[in-house]
Amino acid sequence: MAAEAALGSDSNGIGPDPNTKTEHLSPAEILMKKHEADLAHRASIEDVVDEEDIIHPPTHETTPGPVLEEKAGSTDGPTGTWAQPMSAKAAGKQKARDETSIDEPKAKTTYKAFDLKSDDAFPSLGSGPRPSVPAAAPAWGMKKSQPSQIHGSNGAHSASANDATTSSNPSSRASTPASGVATPTSAPASGAFGQPYAQRTQGGATLSLPGRPREVADTIVLKSHELLPRDQLKKPVSEIVQSIKKRTGASLQMSTSRSGDSTCIARGSPEAVRKALRDVAKELSAKQSIKLSIPASLRHRIIGNKQGVTIQGIQQRSGTRVHVPRPEEPTSTNEDDYEIMIDVVIEGDALGVKIASDEILSIVNDHTSNVNLSLKGIPAEFYPFIAGPNGARTAALEEGRNVRIHIPHYYTWTTQPPPTPSAPNQSPTFSPAIGIPIRVLGDRLAAQQAREEIERWVEELRRQIAVEEISVDRGRHRFILGGRGDLLHDFLQETGCAVVLPPPSENRETLTITGPRDKLSDGINKAFELAGSMHSANVDISRSHITAPHGPQAHARNLTRYLEQRKEIERLERSFDAHIALPTDDGPVIWEIYSRIGRNIYPARAEITSIVNAHPPARFGHVEMDPFFHRHVRQQSAHIIKDNYGVHLVFPEDENHQILMVYEGKPVPGQEYELPKKFPSASELNEAEAALQEAREYLLSLIRDQKEIVKKSIEVPKKFHEKVQRFLSREQQDLAGGEIPVRVQVGEPIPRTLQAADDQVFLRGPAESVDTLINKVAQFIEEEKENERENGYATSFDFPKKFANILIGRKGENIRKYREEFDVEIQVNDGKVEIKGAKRRADAAKAKIIALGKKLEDEATHVLKIKPQYHRDLIGAKGNQVNRLQERYNVRVNFPRSANVVPANDDQSIADTASEVGGGHRFSRASQAPDEVIIRGPRKGADEAREELLNLLQYTIDHSHVASVSVALNQIPSLIGQGGREMESLRLSTGAQIDVPDFKRDGADPPKRVEIKVKGTKKQVEDAKKLLEERAKTFDESIVRTLEVDKKHHKALIGSGGANIRDIVTKAGGSDDRRDLARTVRFPRQESEDNTIVVEGNKLIVEKIVASIEEIIKQRENQVTETVEVAPEKHRVLIGRGGETRRDLESRFNVSVDVPKQSQTGQARSGVKIVGQLQDVEKCREHILGLVKNQEGATVQVPRRLHHSISDNGQFFRRLRNEHKVSVDHNGQQPPARSATTSPRVRINGGDLPLITDDQNSPDNFSWVIRDSDESAEEGDIPWTLRGPPESVIKARALLEAAIEQAQKQTVTGYLILPDPSKYRYVVGHGGSQVNSIRKQTGCKITVPRDQAKGEAIEIQGAKEGVEQAKDIILELVRNGGSGGNGVGRGGRKG
């Protein structure tokens, strides 16, 4: 061994070091070294991976996952950057994978450069120094590596890319479990032995020849402190190695480094190598003992469910002894928020301890990830020192770890006072804190390390911390540490000491200073300094009402209770920055006032005195009532008494029977009650006494009909307590409105003389109700005992192991519901569910659980990567969007709560980065990333919900373009418009969402400009932004001018339909839009007496408008009015069609022409007024006279029966007007009414239309109807007055007379419907040539319908012979395809 130590080793402890100097070595040592050097250059035969294995690797080696690109030449493992991620929508459509992001990039194949120093690739060249591979201890917070994972040279995991990237917390994977002892780096995990040496070391060798057993090589490194001393070895190391080689058949090579670490390389068959290395570790290493803290809930998994099969297997494989403590009885039936931990002790050699600990940690990690530890055995007096000033020490401990540490804020004791000062050379005896443990939450490994560090601090504090007591007035205690101990950390930072105050309920003046002995004096001096800086005063409130009926002390205590309950003491303290110490015993009622500011003392004292004086005994009263009724009266009647009688009730906190009543007066709606500060008048005192008496009578009436209140107990075995409580709760659910439920108390403390105190259930209430419930409880207990006897039935069945956590639920809530629902015992272990109980109940529970398993088997989970900025839109207002998805597809959609670390059993998180909608515990994920949305449910529904959510996401992304436009605050009303019409119009025209900020103008200093937010698609945002910016620019550049204009001119300025003002604005360069016009020029309302016209807009435009208006007003002031006599029948000439002529006159001559209405009579009927400038009026007058003079008139009497036939729906009038400039009127007479049968192009219905079965291509299938021409039923004539130029009137008259003659010849009307309306075009011909030819040939009027697709008829009017001839010609045209012909038709149905 000495020679081996002298040789040295490389960085891995294997082989000679080439840098070792040989000048001081003996020849034998040099020869030995040379032999070892040559050994490294021997050729070896290695296993080569089959090409088929490369192309088709095993499943566990090709698990999809993100892979980092490895840089060539790097010795630090994978480095580089992530591949480019896919878009949110594309990623969301990828196939779901458990706990894997949908947008994971594919692994990229990289190739390393040749390593000439590699002993594997080039054995003949030798190898350089091999870099050491650091050991990676298993991470508590992660899943354990599978047995197929390879290991490094020291047995450390060499994780695949998938392992490296799927971990939720990579930082903890490199951590080492803080077990309290060193962990050997050489020991591989269970199942590691037998791996090929090339997989376990860099440059190792394997041998695999056909027909020969496969050889492997493995290595173990034993640290110097793990080795047995030489004097304790049974044999020399060389003999031990030789013995193991003979015993196992393996080849062993030992070497020792300068640091004393020993390395053993074993070669041979897998079984021989494994046994050889185990024997080396067993015979050379010292015995070790470590402790592993695991959750008590996993105890059964470490032991195993078949007589300890799991723990026995661990002990056999590792050669160690594993001790798991027995389970303890729970001290409480209530579930804690933390996990109970137990210590598992492992004893054995270094390698065996490592193997056993790895297997145990693997089991733990398979079932847990995060942990919530509770450190209970630590004295509360140490808490400030553990936390450090302002939490500095715990913050440093948390830094870089996935863990949170919560230390209770301890500054006052409750039930357990601090220890008393000890002798100078002795440490005080501190007791563990009760009910306020330190909490450690987060990754299991990090939490364990934090726990061990805290425990180490506690041991140091036990040796360092001393205690001293000082006496300070109770009222000054608050000012040492602040109201709620807020100044404790400042005190600790300045003095190195902490202060523990007595609770307010204790009438003590002693407080405790804790800290290192050398700093206690600083803490004491600082406490006295803070306490002495206070100013104080006393108020004896009992002296204000010394004649109180029950004594001044009793009244003062009642008044103090009332003011405390009313929070008046707190208000006084806030108002005067003071502290008021109240008495706690039955002595004098003296209030002590303390404040750092001396001038606040006396105003506080004065206000207290005024409040006390304003509450004489007459305002107070009391009523005796059994405490059983207090809760009911407080909940049901206190507000009624306050509203009806103005009496406030103060209930005792203990079992006192007396309820205090204080008269305050009836409340004023919407006004908070304020305590009076003046002595009440006599009338007010009488009012108070009367109200108190009425309130007392009302309270007593509430319980007058109640039965006697009793308290009885019944013995119930402890195992039935929870069931009895649930039973009593159900029994009292449906009580009548006025009935008070019986109170139930389990295990009430009773005197020691009575036995079975824990088995007592106490009931308090009306005697009859208590007796009834006791009988029911007794019957219930008997039924439960009977059920217990029947509960021998047991059944077990398989349940998918992957869904066990869902079956169990968070903290077991789901399985507990099943147990309570069916009243059976249910256990879930390793994919097996065992149910014990009555057969009927057990079978029902089994059926329900099996149904749950089938439902879960069909479930699918999709994890979508969606940026948090879109979550709010996807969730919708009050979750309506996501709730709709959940209801439609029967799935659950979980949005993340927070990006912060949240423990698995913590259902609270920081403020909504995103809201979790529908996030029942069943679907919650402790490690859900802030950009992950989880959809889980039936596979079909989950797929459809994912697709719809991604479509909604794409829509949201497309409509998430945003922009802002700065506008003046004063412009907001005009942008919104009356009733929001302007803004709504802008939204509708652009499609964008426009949010206008709500700023109230009555604010202290409102901003001059505000930002309007625009959201939508890119185009919508651009359009809306452009419009808003244009309006903002116009507004910013706009000015406001006002004009005082007499109202008589307003109508002329506006013009008919706003024509004049529109013309003024457009000529000035303004918009002709109706809304813009209304904003640009605003006239006062007609009913208003205001004459002000407001002009607003661009400065240049406004100035032009104002100038135009002023010019118009100036002209109107100089206008003249002239009346021209024009015969009423010629007014039509002046007006023109639609007022066209009159507008032309007004525009041409710049005048206003007023033509009398037809309703006017007398002389005014013929007077046409012309208003304008004198010269313009003269010109217009001359033009009108000339126009009227040129208009000759001729009247023709037309038979009324022929009026509509000649007018031809107004076509004849239009022909005269367009061709001859002649207008027609009827001298005020109304045209005859049109009969229903005279309408042209009548649709022939009934049976006359061609049938659907007729040949559509045959012209013989037609409908033909002849009727007498429609004639008006009216007799007589109607005048047609023709007006126009004389020569035109003559021509028009001739046309009219010819039309009358023609109409008199048209005695019948024929209606022809062809089966194929598309052939009507043959009848019309090119440019109407055919139909005009038929008209001339037959002398008939022919009308071909325009909308031929509606089956309307061709209408033919004329003499009967001409109508028949026209019909035949039309049919011949259709038959010949429009080529002409005048033959007679060959058939058809005639009507």
List the uncertain runs. Answer: 1-23, 44-209, 329-337, 749-756, 899-924, 1237-1249, 1382-1391
Determine the fraction of residues in helical runs and give it as a percent range: 25-40%
Strand content: 15-25%
Structural class, please?
A: alpha+beta
Compute the CA-based radius of gyration. Answer: 53 Å
Strand order of the largest sheet: 42-43-41-39-44
Q: What's the β-strand tally? A: 44
Descriptive account of the structure:
By secondary structure, the protein is of the alpha+beta class. The protein is 37% helix and 18% strand. The chain contains 48 helices and 44 strands. The strands form 14 sheets. It has a 5-stranded mixed β-sheet. It has a 3-stranded antiparallel β-sheet with strand order 1-3-2. The longest helix has 24 residues, at 767-790. The N and C termini lie far apart (134 Å). The model is unreliable at 1-23, 44-209, 329-337, 749-756, 899-924, 1237-1249 and 1382-1391 (pLDDT under 50). Residues 1-212, 314-334, 1222-1243 are annotated as: Disordered. Residues 156-172 have a biased composition (Low complexity). Pfam families: KH_1, KH_11, KH_Vigilin. Its main location: cytoplasm.
Short characterization:
The chain is of the alpha+beta class. Strand 2 and strand 3 form a beta hairpin. The chain starts with a helix and ends with a strand.
Throw out a few tags for this protein:
1391 residues; cytoplasm; RNA-binding; KH_dom_type_1_sf; repeat; disordered C terminus
List the SSEs and their pairings.
Blueprint: H1 2-7, H2 27-39, H3 51-55, H4 88-92, H5 161-166, H6 170-173, H7 197-200, E1 216-222, H8 237-248, E2 251-256, E3 262-268, H9 270-284, E4 288-295, H10 299-303, H11 309-318, E5 321-323, E6 341-348, H12 350-367, E7 370-375, H13 383-387, H14 392-398, E8 403-406, E9 438-443, H15 444-464, E10 465-471, H16 474-481, H17 488-495, E11 498-500, E12 510-516, H18 520-532, E13 535-540, H19 552-565, H20 568-576, E14 578-581, E15 590-595, H21 601-613, E16 620-624, H22 630-636, H23 638-645, E17 647-650, E18 658-663, H24 682-704, E19 709-715, H25 721-731, E20 743-746, E21 760-766, H26 767-790, E22 794-798, H27 804-808, H28 813-822, E23 825-829, E24 832-836, H29 839-857, E25 859-865, H30 871-875, H31 880-889, E26 892-894, E27 932-938, H32 939-958, E28 961-968, H33 972-976, H34 981-990, E29 993-995, E30 1009-1016, H35 1018-1037, E31 1038-1044, H36 1050-1054, H37 1059-1067, H38 1074-1080, E32 1081-1082, E33 1092-1098, H39 1099-1117, E34 1120-1125, H40 1131-1135, H41 1140-1149, E35 1152-1154, E36 1167-1172, H42 1174-1189, E37 1192-1199, H43 1203-1207, ...
